[in-house]
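Supplementary Text 2. Reproducibility record for the structural model of the 405-residue chain.

All settings were left at their defaults, and a single model was retained for analysis rather than an ensemble. We include the record here because the model underlies the residue-level annotations in Supplementary Table 4.
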Amino acid sequence: MPFEPSGHDTQTVPKVGTARPACPLCGTPVAQSFFEQKGIPIHENVLMPSREEARACPRGDLAVALCGLCGQIFNATFDYSGVRFSAAYNNAQTYSPRYLDYLEEIAGDLIERHALKGKTIVEIGSGQGTLLLRLCRNGQNRGVGYDPSYSGPETAEGGAVRFFRDFFDEGDSPLVADLVVCRQVLDLVPQPRRLVAALSRRLAGSSSTTVCFEVPDVNWMLNNCALWDMGYERRSYFSPQSLRWLFEHEGFESTRLSSSFGGQYLWLEAHPAGGPRPPSAAPDLTGLAKQTEEFAVLAQRKIAASLRNLQEAGSAGKCFVWGAGAKGVMFLNLLDPQCQLVHCAVDLNPAKQGKFVPGTGHPIVWPESLRGLRIARIVLMNPIYLDETRRLLKKLGISAPLECA
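Retained model, structure tokens:
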């Protein structure tokens, strides 16, 4: 996570166990949560070198609640004091051809629509620089990336791109950039409003700068009952209403709000609009409130049905989970905490090979490890990779039932 909380926050982080925790966006007290899980791993993407360390990992409680004022959905029991983002944190998805194609689409679209030729680009949460390097290489642009988990060289592209193994600076110094990109970060920070406010402050007077933020879309999670997406690491679950509310409140004018990656993500573009101001109108949350009520019922049914499926399949051979990221970690912790139903987790990320799933201790293996095994079922954690996974299994000569979680 490229943004570090400090001791002079403008909002108070609610304590674990607070009777009525406050919304991290608008501060409104929230009466109750609609989805809860106890004792889940605090970190879903930290590499665990042994089964013992994986099972002894720090844990916390999940209590997902809806703010009735701004529409923000968040973990009401989130406590940042135990969360650590370092070089041991690895959530790279770039070993998937489907995901790489998606990044290529983003880079090409941004370069074309915003005429990014010879410009300066800043990425907050640049990971290993996969998108930033594409933006700079394909448009002959200059780039700066911030991420404490970055492990590559300090400069790239002949010095045109520079990486800082650090959090994004919340200070007051002007930020000079034509484009600021921040993907899959805002949902992780304990106080997302402070990050947006800091960016607004540093871009004061730069009305021509475009900021682009990507976050998981909670509407997709609710509509698809994607409860495996709800883990402790994620502080916030943005809806279109709450994302727009946040940026308008902190002095941005949103110019584009759309879905991406098969509807799983929200993509917002905005320009600085002269400082903080009240949102134009309170969002209509009628539909969102109904979605959360339905999710609360469907999630418990889905957990029970998924558990039965694993138990029934186990009598016919070994079961595997495909995807050892956040979704796979939550799936295994909720359904197979004692490693009795699922043999291994499969992942394409080389850094995860030989490691173990946080919380449960399931080993993580290559797809090739499934060859020659009597497989009852493979559970794919993200349906967007279904075609890609089928092709890979066919190439490896592995014939086994493949289903989406």
